[in-house]
Specification:
Layout (H helix, E strand, L loop, with lengths): L7 H5 L23 H8 L10 E4 L2 E5 L12 H15 L10 H10 L4 H15 L6 H14 L6 H16 L3 H17 L11 H16 L1 H4 L22 H5 L24 H16 L1
GO cellular component, one term: nucleus
Protein name: Xylanolytic transcriptional activator regulatory domain-containing protein
Keywords: Metal-binding, Nucleus, Transcription, Transcription regulation
Length: about 290
């Protein structure tokens, strides 16, 4: 057990109302938004490799693939509520951690419907920065990583978000080489989910969650790339995505601001000003070019 103050999530648990069926929480999963051609290339012929199945092949030993339900993440409800609250209070303002939508995550925690890999990763990285739960946080990070690996045949934005947090956890807790390898996997998941493209059919919040998740991946290049082309996770020339919106618009689920700029000029109308998060992406690109 790792003690801490009462969280906002705990105080809201008795009063928060369920979100509408058409709200942001229904759109944050990107599994159903894979383009048909990509779906065919990534997931076709994986029926025999799905979790919970036994793989057989002539001349090869029988391989049992563990089911996603075989691996549970047990975190005390009180500790979970405190760590979620601390994440949004202290980490969410940082560019690399701003991809989660607070009200949606809080609601799903209350409903116990939050993705287990994401929950474990969120609690692990927050506990690391807050100096809490030293005996449990490594187990949470490993549990999240295991769940991501078990679900590789079904790309999910939740698993990508969990993996981004695990990568930061590994890099900041002495596991840099493992974080380096996991970053490559995160880039593949982002490509499978087509996160480097806009998806206008989604709700404003879902679009912004996808943008911010991708830009968080892009920020990893400052950790692992240092201007070296062979270590790049995603080249700027193939990023057809708008820059992040302002936090107030994101939190309040405001209508999309179509004047949000792109990373590279020429992809759309350039706005007269760029928000702080957008400027940080621009600075990251400038730093990359200088390092090259």
């Amino acid at each position: 057990m790792c003690p801490g103050p009462m969280s906002t999530l705990q105080r809201r648990s008795a009063t928060i109302a369920p979100r509408p069926a058409h709200g942001a929480s229904d759109d944050l999963t990107a599994d159903s938004n894979l383009r048909p051609s990509l779906t065919n290339s990534v997931i076709t012929n994986t029926a025999d490799h799905m979790p919970g199945r036994t793989i057989t092949s002539p001349g090869r030993p029988v391989v049992s693939v563990p089911s996603l339900t075989d691996f549970s993440v047990d975190i005390d409800d009180k500790i979970e509520a405190e760590l979620v609250d601390q994440y949004f209070r202290y980490l969410h303002a940082l560019p690399a951690y701003g991809f989660l939508h607070q009200s949606t995550v809080v609601q799903r925690c209350l409903e116990r419907s939050i993705n287990p890999a994401l929950k474990a990763a969120l609690c692990a990285i927050t506990a690391l920065f807050m100096g809490r739960c030293a005996d449990e946080r490594d187990k949470w990070a490993q549990a999240s990583e295991t769940l991501v690996f078990q679900g590789l045949s079904h790309p999910s934005i939740f698993h990508l978000q969990a993996l981004l947090l695990v990568i930061r956890y590994r890099a900041d807790s002495g596991g840099f080489s493992r974080a380096f390898m996991l970053a490559g996997l995160a880039a593949r998941l982002a490509a499978a989910l087509r996160l480097n493209y806009e998806h206008h059919e989604l709700s404003p919040v879902a679009q912004e969650v996808r943008r911010r998740t991708f830009w968080s991946l892009y920020f990893l290049e400052e950790v692992f790339c240092s201007g070296l082309r062979e270590f790049e996770l995603c080249h700027p020339d193939i990023i057809y995505l708008r820059l992040p919106r302002e936090d107030t618009n994101f939190a309040n689920e405001a209508s999309p601001d179509m004047n949000t700029a792109y990373l590279i000029r020429g992809l759309g109308v350039e706005p007269t000003s760029i928000g702080q998060r957008g400027l940080f992406v621009k600075v990251a690109l400038l730093r990359r070019n200088i390092m090259k």
